[in-house]
Each structure stands twice: as C-alpha cells, then as structure tokens.
C-alpha cells in the first residue's frame, strides 16, 4: 500500500463538507490505470470524528474546490483507524482527509491499496487569499435589486494577467441562513465603487440557501471589486470570502500564502508566489488611505474618552479634598489620577502621525500605559512569578482538598470544560473550586496558565461566587451577577492574574470559577490561595460532594411544536418532558438556546401530574393549579428557575413566548440527592418513543461481540393487548450516519446480559440510513419484551430516537403500550488478569490447576450472579477451550488448594470461543472463582465480569501474591534420579529450602518443560520430596517422620501435592528429580499459599541464615519440651502448670518450637489428669552448659554448612561438639522462678549429646532411605476426586 503523512493544523483543520472551509483540508492525488477495488485507510493519532472523501480530479494537480464530483466517502467515526473500500474506474482522483468539525488538530497517515498517493505540489496548486467581513446594520444591503446594495462591503484585488479563478463566499454563524451570493465588478481604479453598472459585472455567485456560494470566473488583467451580499437586505451574519487563483490576493489580505510541502518534504521553490508579490502603487495608495481612516477613527474615540477622563479626574479630586477635609484620611496608595494634559498631547501626536504605522503604534502604546498604569506592574508581577512552584505543570491533576495557609490546586481546561467566560452559555462547565474559610482572613488569589514552548498566553480570569448560592454545590445558575458574583478578577492576556480580597468566615465554601475569556482554549492551570491569618481548604470538584443529580434532554421547536407560552391555545403542542421525584428535593431547571441570536424570549413551566398516570404521552390540558413553578420570559438564549418539590410525577414544558418561533434547545434539570434523574420526552397519543445516545460507555455494537453488546441501553416494552407495531429507530444527526439496527428479545424486569439464539424474537436490518424500520406482531401473553437499539460496530457514537406506532392508527394506542429503559438491576464487578508462564494451569484434569489465578467473590445476602469469562478474539497460538469453576471458599485459606466435587457450586463448561458464562443463585458467603484453559500452558489475557443483583453488598477481588516459583534444569551433574535408584545420585539433585514461621497448608507443583506443548504426551516420570533438614542444608532421612510430603513419580506433564506443615527454624528441604538418572529436562517448581500467609514462608535455592536470637529461642523451647517429656514419666500436674511454663518462658508465639510446646500441652492434658500426681516432678539431674548461648548457638548471620558437592563426594565434617557441661544436683521445682531458671539453662548441647550416644550404639544403615518406605513413595498418586473434564460441554444457564 502507498501512504502519505499529513496533519490537520490551523486552517487545514477545515472540517467536513458541511463547512465551506473543507477546501483547505489536506488533499492527495492518485491515479488508477484500470478499474480496481481500492481500500483506503486513515489512521489518526487522536480519536477525532474523522473520515475522507474521494473526488474525481481533472489531473491538473490542483486541489478540488467543488464537491459535485464525490465518488466515495468513508463516513465519519471517532476511531483511531477509519477504512473504506470502493470500486473505482480508471482515472485521476483526489482524496480529502477531514475531521467532522473544523479546528480539530492532529497528525494522520493515509494509505491506499492501489495507485500512488501524492501530495499536491504548491507549484501546481491554487493560491488562495481570504478576507473576513460582516453584514451588520447598514452593510447588510442585500443584492443589486435594492437601493441599499451600495452599502455592502467591497474587497479589492488586482489581476496581473488573464487567468481562471474560483471565488467562494461563506458564513458559519447561522445554520438557517438564506440566499447568499456575490458580484465581481471590473473597476478603472483600485478603489471603492460608488455605483455598480451591469456592464461592469464580470462574474456572479448564484444566490442559494445554505452557508456558501461558489463560482468559477474568467478574469482579464485589471482591477476588480468583490461584493458579497445577501439576496434580501437586513440579513445579518459574519462571512468570509476566498479567491482561488494563480497569484491573486485581496488588498485587505495581509497574510502570507501557505501550501502543502512538495513530496520530498521541502517547500516549493518557485518564485515569486502570490504570497511574496510586491504590491502595485495603486494597492499601496489604497492601503495608506484605509490606514489613515482607521487612525482618525481611533483619534476621535480617544478624544471622547479623554473628555470623560477629565470629568472623572475632576470628580475624583473633589472627593479626595472632601475626605482630607472631613477625616484627615489620605488617598490610598493604589489610587491613580490620569494626567489629562499628557493624554491630550498624545492624542494630538497620534493625529499627526497619520498613516505612519510604526509611529502610530508607538503612540498608542504610550496611551495604553497612561490609561492602565497597573498593567506594567501586573506584567512585572507575572514575570516575577515565572519561577514560582505554581509555574511548574504537575504530572497529575489535583483530586483531593488542599489545606493550609498557602494551598494550590492543579487543573485544566479541556474539551467541554474549556467553556469561556460568562458571556457564553457554556461558562457553567468550567472547572470549579471550593474554598472553605473558617475564620475571617485576607487572601491573595492567583491563577497561572501553563504555556507550552512558544505558546501565547490566553486572556484569563476567575469569578468568586457567594457561598450561600448553592450551599457547597456546583454553580449552574447565576440569577443576578451583581449579587451572586462577589468578586471577579480582571481579564488579562498574561501568564497569571491575581487579586487580594477580604474573605469573611462562611458556613459553606466559596465557589471559584477559573476560565479563559473565549471558550475552546485548552491548557493546564494552577490556582493558588495565600491566606494571611487563617488556614483555608481548597478542594477541586468532587461529584459525590459537590455534584447534583442531573437529567437533560435536547429538543426542537418546529413549525408544529412551537406552541408559545400558556397564553396561547397551542401551548400543549410544545415538547414535553416527564420525570419522577422520589423524595422532597430542590430542583434547578435550565433552558438554553444558542442556535439563533435574534430569537424570541424563552421560558419553561413545571407541572405536577397525578401519580396514577402511567402513559408517557403529552398532556392535552394544563390547568393553572397544576403549575408548580414557571420562569420569567426574558433572554432569547437562557432561562432558569428553581423549585422545591414533593415526591411525585412532573412534566416540564419548554416554550417560546410567542408561537411559531423555530429553533433547537437543550433542557437541564439539577436536583439535590435525587438519585437517577431521567427526562423522558412525552409523545403524541399515537406514538410511544424514547430518546437516547450511544456514548463511549454504552456504544456496545451488535451481537457480533457479545461481551460488548451487553453495554447497550435496553428498553422494556410491555403490551397490554395483542397488536401489530411499526418500530422505527432514527438517528438524530444526519451527518456521519452510522450503520444501526435493533433486536427484540424475550424480556424481564432485569437487563438481559447474555443473549442466545432462542432469546431473539425479531431483528432489524443494519443499514447506514437515518431511519431503520421493522413491523412486528406482539402478543400480550409473551410480554414483556426487551428492545436493544445499537450500532453495528461498537464504539460508534450518536443520538437516536426509538419510536413505536400502531399499524391501525388506534388513538388509544399509547394506553396499551409502555416503553421504558430497563433499570440497572446489577452491580458490575470486573477484574482483568492473565494466564502466563506460571499461572496457566489448565482444568481439573491437571494437578497444575491450582496455578490458575483465583478471585474472591463475597455477598452479604442471597443473590443472583451472572459470571462471564472473556478472552481477546482471533488470538494466534490459542487453540484451547476456556471455562471456570465457582466454589465455596475455604475458611482457613483465601486460595483453594484442594477442590472437591461437593465444593463446586457452578461450572462454566469448557468451550472454544472468546467468552463463556453461567448464571446462578448463591447464598450469602464467600466463593472462589477459578478461570482456566482446558489444557495447561496456553497463555492469554482475560477479563472476568460478575454481575450481582446485590448491588451494595457484593465484592470481587483478585487473589495475588500467593505463589513463589523457581525454574531449573536437570543436567549431567545434577540429574541424580529418584531416591530408590541411588542414594548418592539422589543427593545430587537440585534442592530448595523452605522456611515456615506458622502452621500452614501448602500446595506444591512440579512441571516438566514449562511452556512447551506435547501433542503426543510423551512425558518423563518426575516427582519431588519434602523432608526435614539435618541442620546443615541436607535432607534428613533417618525416620519416617522426616518425610513431610511427596509427589510422583509418574510420566505426567506435572505432579503436585497438598500438605500441612509446622513451623521450624531449620528449613525444610524440597528435592525435585526425574525417576531415571541422567535425564535432561527443564522444570518449574511452584509453591502455592494463602496470600495472607505469604509473609510466613520463604523459598530459596540456598540455605537461609539465622540470627543468634533465633537460635537462642530454639534452645529455650527444646529445653522446655525435654523437661515436659521427663515429667510425664514421673508425675502429673494440671494443664495450667505446663501451660505456665510456656508463658513464663516469654517465648515468641510465632516460632516453630513454641507451637510444638502448645501442641504438646494439649496432648498431655488427658494423661496428666489421669495420673493425679501430687507434684509436678521429683529431683532430676540437669545438664547446664557453662556458656549456653556463646557455645551452642551459631554466630549471628552465619550460614549452616553447605550441602554435599554435586559430584556426590563425602559431606563436610559435623560442627564442633559443645564443651562438657556442669551437673546441677537436685534441682527444685517448688517455685516458678527456680523452675524457669533451670529450664532456660537446659540447652541444645544436652539433646545433641544424648542423640550422639544413641547413634554410637546403633549400626549405620547402608541405605539412608529405608525409613521412607520407598514402596509407598513410588506408588501411583490417588486419582483426582470427581470426573475428568470434557471440552465443549453444554452450557449450564438457568
């Protein structure tokens, strides 16, 4: 594919064909030698609503000016990539890349499957020159048929040589404008024409409805005047005029001509272009005359202002004298009196300067400095603040309140929040800040805009709204600007603006609204408050704290529905909107109309209706007593009012004062704590309809993507008799239509989140048209139904209206049909995760299932849940099925290590596809959800979605951090085989050291060749043993009790086991191995534990080290345990006595030996009670080491001896034996203190000495593994409880 890179920037962001400025959008040529099916693809960096047109070209290399030659278009979509396929015959073409709205800037790449896309060279393209004008008052003179024609503005230009030109006159101020055109008149001189003769008219733009008039004209060399006009006089609007030619430029156009670069990226080097042509003497003379007239106009205005300043000075001087005479007060330091003599002198100099532009501008600067002496200070203050902390743009916007004497909030004007000052209706959407003042204080407020490199500052300011206007809520209405706005900073085109203000204490926060003067100026800003005497709190907007419940609707007064106010009988024809209020609340109702400036006064009525009224049809009559509140009719663009209402049903009727005034409007209702506030447009009796919008959140597309489809808004349709309906889905915006349609499903009171074929009763066609219609027969007995209007592709946005009509035209139709949005009955809980190298464990057929991610779902009451597991579509190397298990949680462990059939509450059958789901009703409690692939080792991201009708009491969280893994490899030096093959060989296998600090249940999994799929399932027998340690890093194998757990040995992909384990200071040893020695394989060993207990285990491939304190603790506990064992043989005592030993020893309850003591106390309880001995124990000889800790304990930080070398050589010598200990005769146990002293002195040396004596008397066994009973070790592991999984089971969906 060929491709070009381009950008929408400046005037090149001209918008779609709805705007005359589309002609400035980037255009690219390509040529087809023969007919072809061409695929064009536009990729943009932003997600503007964008698209492209393909037009037939004359092959001249010039951009296309007329839009009649469109042969294909993509449609406009807010997506990263837009593509379109078109069958095109051989020929020359131009592609126009555009955004839907003008002014949307960004970069893009355009690709074509056939032909070669090329930029249009400036050397061949049109040169363009543009001027702006206005039809206002006298200059709206109409066409040549009217005497006032001569007052229209004229634009002069000179033609050096004969050429063809295209002239376009266009306006974008008003959509309903009528009949604009223009005349091109030949003149002798380059001067304004007093009288236009028909013989001098050489070109004319046809008068046509709309926003532009375009015509091609042939021009000889000479002087000309362009006269844009409307057909009738007094039609006011701003306009632009552009001439496309070889080198023609308007006299009033002082801009530099621009064009696209050549293909090689360098600007065209032709000379001299229209942009650099030297003006003729005639043109210079006209410009000088015009500049002189402008200067004289300024002089006149300044003289008038000077006279006012003189009068103001006299009054100010009189007031100062009066103050000084009355109270001795001095003039404030910031009071300034304008020097009127200096001003008069400057005005005279300006008049004398005449057309000298440089001299005039210098004098004007002096005048401004005289009139605004504080501006220089403001500029210096702004410069001084350049190094302040607020000048640095933060990484993130402020989201929490800031407290202190000096606080700052970082925000931004972006999108709809770049709303401009209060001259614009959009001001209320600016960011709003909430300033809490608990004590009176004087404060300095500063607003600083963050500027990119070379960016010019915008005009900025801020408003301060009185605290009790909204009582801490967002300000949406300002009734009286003089009263509600307590202060406003002066708008300045500067980097920062500030003001000092006295702020009284207030119960509610002040609302501060930072803004730019004009809307659509996007940038970041910092707002800082410096308080002199008291701490303040500055908070950004938080919907939960400062927001309103909000409902809105967009409508239109048409020729049929513009019924006027209640004074007129047509009042009920106006659009009507119904809503319900659940509890007493305050409403603020706002009506906006921005389409027309010269419009009738607008207003609205709030009407209470009976609670028993169920039809969503218009009111046929409105009695005066039913009107709760109404607005006053005033401005043509904005009206609002407030009302306190009781629970019930209400209707709002927006209207103009007089009938037949046509325009579009928007209606907004704000309420305090009113929950979900929905405005429903009421319909005529023969139509039932609802309006909606596909947004980024609910544009789910059709059923091709089931997981996205459930995001669509659903509507509950109920019919109370059998009937035939016509259903119409209408797109509100005709420009950029989407492919849309709808489904009719079996219904209920809840949204249908999963749709199978049997649920679909009707389906319309999906077409890219304004209306989609379908006739259906609906039975009362099958009611209710669900209608789902949607776009074909997800993510396509737009407004729509869904309407129902009775085929027989029954006027009572609306009484038998109701259509309402399905209420949001579920809370949506979503987590995203992945099956990766460690966590792709497969289904329950594989012991590695415990490696799968697990998720914890809880509910505090019985609830209906719908669980969905989805993976990305069309993944490579993902050929397995997906499913999941829902099981009761283990109260002892968050992660399930064992899963039995009786514990499985619900299972999603394993299916190939991108989504599986189940529906179930579960009791209050906790559940583990375990997503899995059918076979292990398949990696993919996935999303788990749980919908619960227990909206407030359900939660879902991922259980992470509960496993630890090591990867390794059996090679020649460490592949020693199983224990039964060779003792020396087995000791050569890799080993891992497990430290446990509290009693736990663990799962362990050994996988061979991780990440590799075996189609023929030819596996090597593998297994592993978990044993106690001999204290020197070696597995201990002398007794059966030394074996903690085992798995294998079997020819399986994986082996696993679950086991309980007690704490120990000495680590346990895990030895993974193959059955046969010398087998080379990679492996992965994974240990799984409850995430909450993860901190109590440590797995490493080297023996851990222990501190002196840890070993001292071990000695104490072992001495206690030894004494208790001896006590059993001689006497008995109460359990409390033995438990007291543990308590008096002050041992750490988390250490392993202390847990052994506690367990021993429980075991001895019954025996001690039976013995009924009179005393705890008799006299005993106790061995007491001379230096227990120093000799017996290992030095702090030292490691145990290393394991045997991999070659199987002799192990290292044992550690030195403790020195001979003294013997204490007749130790007494009469007091706890003496007993504790003797017990704590009983050390490890005595235990080791006794063990050495026993070993010396016993012959050494040749096979150190005989105590393990190898017959049991090598036995086949037990079959997994329950049946094996099958792929493609039927779904279990209640």
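-> sequence recovered:
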């Amino acid at each position: 594919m060929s491709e070009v890179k381009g950008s929408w920037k400046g005037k090149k962001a001209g918008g779609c064909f709805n705007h005359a400025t589309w002609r400035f959008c980037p255009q690219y040529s390509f040529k087809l030698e023969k007919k072809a099916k061409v695929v064009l693809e536009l990729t943009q960096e932003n997600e503007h609503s964008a698209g492209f047109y393909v037009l037939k070209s004359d092959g001249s290399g010039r951009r296309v000016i007329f839009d009649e030659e469109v042969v294909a278009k993509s449609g406009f979509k807010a997506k990263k990539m837009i593509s379109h396929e078109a069958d095109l015959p051989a020929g020359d073409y131009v592609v126009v890349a555009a955004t839907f709205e003008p002014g949307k800037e960004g970069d893009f790449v355009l690709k074509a499957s056939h032909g070669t896309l090329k930029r249009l060279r400036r050397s061949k393209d049109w040169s363009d020159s543009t001027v702006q004008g206005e039809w206002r008052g006298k200059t709206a003179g109409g066409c040549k048929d009217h005497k006032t024609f001569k007052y229209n503005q004229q634009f002069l230009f000179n033609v050096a040589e004969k050429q063809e030109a295209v002239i376009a006159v266009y306006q974008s101020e008003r959509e309903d404008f009528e009949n604009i055109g223009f005349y091109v008149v030949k003149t002798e001189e380059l001067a304004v024409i007093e009288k236009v003769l028909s013989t001098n008219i050489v070109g004319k733009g046809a008068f046509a409805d709309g926003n532009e008039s375009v015509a091609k004209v042939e021009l000889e060399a000479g002087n000309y005047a362009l006269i844009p006009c409307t057909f009738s006089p007094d039609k006011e609007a701003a306009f632009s005029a552009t001439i496309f030619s070889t080198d023609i430029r308007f006299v009033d156009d002082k801009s530099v001509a621009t064009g696209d670069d050549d293909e090689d990226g360098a600007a065209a080097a032709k000379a001299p272009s229209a942009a650099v042509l030297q003006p003729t003497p005639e043109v210079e003379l006209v410009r000088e005359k015009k500049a002189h007239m402008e200067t004289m106009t300024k002089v006149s205005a300044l003289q008038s202002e000077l006279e006012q300043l003189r009068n103001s000075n006299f009054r100010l001087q009189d007031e100062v004298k009066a103050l000084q005479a009355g109270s001795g007060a001095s003039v404030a330091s910031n009071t300034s009196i304008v020097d009127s003599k200096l001003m008069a002198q400057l005005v005279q100099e300006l008049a004398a300067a005449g057309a000298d532009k440089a001299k005039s501008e210098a004098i004007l600067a002096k005048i401004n400095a005289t009139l605004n002496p504080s501006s220089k200070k403001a500029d210096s203050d702004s410069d001084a603040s350049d190094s302040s902390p607020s000048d640095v743009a933060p990484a993130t916007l402020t989201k929490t309140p800031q407290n202190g004497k000096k606080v700052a909030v970082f925000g931004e004007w972006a999108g709809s929040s770049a709303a401009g000052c209060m001259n614009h209706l959009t001001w209320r959407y600016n960011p709003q800040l909430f300033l809490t003042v608990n004590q009176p204080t004087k404060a300095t407020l500063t607003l600083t805009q963050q500027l990119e490199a070379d960016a010019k500052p915008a005009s900025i300011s801020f408003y301060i709204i009185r605290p009790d206007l909204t009582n801490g809520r967002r300000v949406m209405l300002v009734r009286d600007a003089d009263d509600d706005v307590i202060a406003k900073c002066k708008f300045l085109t500067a980097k920062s603006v500030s003001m000092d203000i006295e702020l009284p204490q207030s119960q509610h926060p002040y609302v501060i609204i930072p803004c730019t003067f004009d809307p659509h100026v996007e940038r970041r800003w910092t707002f800082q408050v410096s308080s002199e005497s008291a701490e303040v709190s500055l908070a950004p907007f938080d919907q939960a704290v400062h927001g309103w419940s909000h409902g809105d609707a967009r409508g239109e007064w048409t020729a049929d529905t513009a019924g006027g106010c209640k004074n007129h009988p047509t009042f009920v024809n106006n659009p009507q909107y119904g809503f319900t209020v659940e509890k007493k609340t305050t409403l603020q109702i706002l009506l906006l109309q921005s389409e027309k400036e010269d419009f009738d006064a607008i207003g609205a009525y709030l009407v209470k209706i009976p609670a028993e009224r169920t039809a969503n049809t218009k009111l046929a009559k409105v009695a005066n007593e039913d009107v709760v509140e109404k607005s006053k009719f005033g401005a043509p663009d904005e009206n609002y009012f407030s009302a306190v209402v009781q629970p019930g049903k209400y209707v709002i009727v927006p209207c103009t004062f007089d009938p037949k005034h046509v325009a579009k409007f928007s209606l907004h209702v704000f309420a305090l704590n009113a929950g979900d506030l929905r405005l429903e447009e009421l319909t005529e009796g023969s139509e039932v309809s609802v309006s909606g919008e596909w947004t980024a959140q609910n544009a789910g597309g059709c059923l091709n993507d089931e997981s996205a489809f459930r995001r669509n808004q659903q509507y509950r349709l109920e019919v109370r008799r059998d009937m035939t309906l016509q259903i119409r889905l209408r797109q509100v915006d005709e420009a950029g239509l989407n492919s849309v349609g709808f489904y009719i499903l079996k219904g209920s009171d809840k949204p249908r989140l999963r749709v199978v074929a049997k649920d679909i009763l009707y389906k319309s066609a999906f077409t890219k048209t304004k209306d989609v219609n379908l006739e259906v027969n609906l039975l009362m007995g099958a009611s209710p139904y669900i209608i789902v209007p949607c776009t074909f592709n997800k993510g396509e946005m737009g407004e729509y209206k869904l309407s129902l009509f009775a085929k027989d035209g029954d006027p009572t139709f609306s009484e038998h049909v109701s259509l309402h949005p399905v209420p949001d009955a579920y809370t949506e809980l979503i987590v995203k995760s992945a099956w990766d190298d460690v966590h792709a464990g497969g289904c329950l057929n594989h012991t590695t299932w415990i490696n799968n991610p697990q998720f914890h779902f809880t509910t505090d009451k019985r609830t209906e849940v719908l669980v969905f597991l989805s993976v990305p579509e069309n993944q490579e190397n993902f050929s397995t099925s997906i499913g999941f298990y829902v099981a009761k949680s283990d109260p002892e462990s968050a992660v399930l290590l064992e899963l039995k059939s009786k514990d499985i509450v619900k299972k999603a059958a394993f299916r190939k596809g991108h989504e599986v789901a189940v529906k179930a009703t579960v009791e209050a409690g906790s559940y583990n959800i375990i997503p899995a692939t059918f076979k292990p080792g398949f990696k993919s991201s996935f999303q788990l979605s749980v919908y619960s009708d227990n909206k407030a009491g359900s939660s879902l969280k991922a259980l992470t951090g509960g496993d630890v893994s090591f990867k390794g490899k059996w090679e020649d030096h460490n592949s020693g085989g199983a224990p039964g093959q060779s003792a020396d060989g087995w000791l050569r296998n890799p080993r891992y050291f497990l430290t446990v600090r509290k009693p736990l249940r663990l799962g362990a999994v050994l996988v061979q060749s991780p990440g590799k799929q075996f189609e023929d399932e030819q596996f090597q027998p593998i297994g592993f043993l978990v044993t106690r340690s001999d204290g020197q890093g070696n597995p201990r194998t002398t007794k059966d009790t030394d074996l903690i757990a085992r798995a294998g040995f079997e020819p399986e992909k994986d082996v696993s086991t679950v086991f309980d384990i007690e704490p120990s200071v000495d680590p346990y040893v895990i030895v993974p191995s193959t059955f046969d020695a010398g087998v080379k394989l990679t492996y992965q060993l994974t240990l799984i534990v409850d995430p909450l207990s993860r901190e109590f285990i440590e797995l490493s491939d080297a023996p851990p080290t222990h501190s002196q304190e840890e070993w001292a603790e071990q000695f104490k506990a072992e001495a206690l345990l030894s004494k208790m064992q001896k006590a059993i043989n001689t006497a008995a005592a109460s359990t409390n006595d033995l438990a007291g030993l543990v308590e008096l020893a002050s041992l750490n309850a988390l250490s392993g030996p202390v847990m052994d003591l506690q367990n021993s106390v429980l075991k001895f309880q019954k025996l001690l009670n039976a013995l009924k001995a009179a005393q705890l124990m008799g006299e005993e000889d106790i061995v007491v080491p001379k230096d227990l800790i120093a000799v017996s304990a290992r030095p702090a930080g030292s490691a145990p001896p290393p394991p045997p070398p991999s070659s199987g050589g002799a192990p290292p010598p044992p550690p030195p034996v403790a020195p001979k200990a003294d013997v204490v005769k007749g130790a007494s146990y009469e007091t706890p203190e003496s007993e504790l002293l003797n017990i704590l002195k009983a050390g490890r040396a005595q235990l080791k000495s006794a063990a050495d004596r026993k070993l010396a008397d016993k012959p050494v066994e040749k096979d150190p593994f005989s105590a393990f009973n190898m017959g049991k070790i090598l036995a086949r592991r037990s079959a997994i409880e329950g049946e094996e999984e099958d792929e493609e089971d039927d779904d279990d969906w209640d």
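The chain has a mean pLDDT of 77.
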